[in-house]
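Quick illustration, no need to memorize.
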Amino acid sequence: MNWFLIALLPPIFWSITNHIDKYILTKYFKGGAIGSVIIFSSAISVILLPLIILIHPEVLQTFNPRYLLIVLTGSLYLLASLPYFYALEKDDASLTVPLFQMIPVFSFALGYLFLKETLNITQVIGGLIILISSIFISLNISEIKKMKMKWDVFGLMVLSSVLFSLNFLFFKYFTIETNFWVTSFWEYVGFALFGLFLLVFIKPFREGFLKVIKTNRLKVLGLNGTNEIINIVAKISFNYASTLTPVTLVWIINGLQPLFVFLFGIILTVLLPKISKEDITRRTLIQRMVAIAVITIGVYLINKAS
């Protein structure tokens, strides 16, 4: 199957989770109980692990001490989610998510150093077009003179981007060394252990988690469960696509995420304004349409050159 089509799934699914993340944080996790969200996120792996064993029993047929490094890689993914959630708590999804466009830069450097991955000139040009347009699509040009750099949000997203880059790089490295499902299985073991660590040893996270369970059990479990299933589909799709092409290219295609965040934001604004509200004034829509047209050019260049 074409790597591009697989790589197109993560930005679509992750843009959905961005809106759900923001809604969950503002509706049920007010007061900074970010760790509670991470514990919920890790809990889904407890369900996923038996399914992987059932479908691919070979994941337990052998054990290598190096698999413990894959477990650490899984913990790294959830660790990367912490600064992202703190940034999302401080700002809107449509303004926070575009800062993930720093990831392809880190991925390119790490992929070149450790996996010897390279891009041709057409791919680099297409990637730059997508990255710049993805940032432009999130700007509020009507208040451009009033805009101030939110260094706290920026710093959190830099940290998150570096950690995510490392996670996906290590995943590809271990997949090359073993295979896709073995790496996936032990990565999700890392998810579960990291969540367990937060639950047992971080008291504010544990208290926040138990409080949410007690007061909004069904709603939170339903929303968060749905959110994590979508996130897992996106993560598996991304991981698989990265085994077919350089990780940097997959991250560049993921640069379409701000576009999908905005499009889903418009749909929610029109149909469910209590969940999300986007600026849909004429000037903003023209700005976004121009950015979308330019992004399409970047995607075409990358797909043509691959």
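The mean pLDDT is 79.
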